[in-house]
Amino acid sequence: MIALPDPCPLLEFNNVTVITGGAKVLDSLSVTIRAGEHVAILGPNGAGKSSFIKAVTREYYPAAAKGQVTFRMGGRDVWHISDLRSLLGIVSNELQYTFTRSITAREVVLSGFFSSVGLFCHCITEAMERRTDEVLAFLEIDHLQDRAMDTLSSGEARRMLIGRALVHSPDALILDEPTTSLDLAAQHSFRTTLRKIAQAGTGIIMVTHNLHDIIPEISRVMLMKEGKIVRDGPKEAVLTDGVIGGLFGVPVHVHTDGGWYYATGY
Fold first, then answer.
1. Fewer CB within 10 Å: N-end or C-end of the chain?
2. pTM over 0.85
3. Does residue 187 lie in a domain region?
4. pLDDT of 69
5. Total structural domains within the chain
6. What pLDDT does residue 3 have?
7. Which domain holds residue 11?
8. How confident is the model at residue 94 (pLDDT cuts 50, 70, 90)?
9. Are residues 16 and 148 in the same domain?
């Protein structure tokens, strides 16, 4: 049997170093994530996880470094934020804070077509309206669309931002610390939504410091510490007592329940 070639990388960093405020926040980082992969990037606070997201979204640019320094999206070099729209959808706590204002939830989802905060004088097409209806129905949040964002709960607002990210049918959804500020009920709804998205074929790239954020569909885990990837592999091999205890510097017991991972004993 002839082996088929691997698909083009969706995202590729090769020896990327980022320095901001005189501090090295990413240190010779090399990462390849392929289309359709479901990946978690796990690490303690200050590990460089959010800096990784900002490097992806072009808020941070690589410093000169030895060796080749590249960003590749969809198999080609990408340098303009507009080029990322059809490839990656981004959901973060910073974005949620930005959208906590008196614009309707539907406007927030529609704004994903323009990467704007609100609609202003943008021309909304019938195709955009139809796609927004599809996304709202898929996420089961259409009943909230006329509510102002600043009247929604944290969980409801987070799901609206996912809708905003999905209007372009991106290859992957990137989530930065996705369950921060969510109570138990909101976490349950949010994780159910993520599983539905993953099962529908959109890649999930989750950045978190919590094992219990890692949905069962995620099969690969990368561990970050001090701006570097220190471990990368199948979650069964990475999410162990010794590895996770060493990453966070505390004794832990990692156990599983129905495909979910939990750390206790610290």
1. N
2. yes
3. no
4. 47
5. 2
6. 42
7. 7-87+201-266
8. confident
9. no
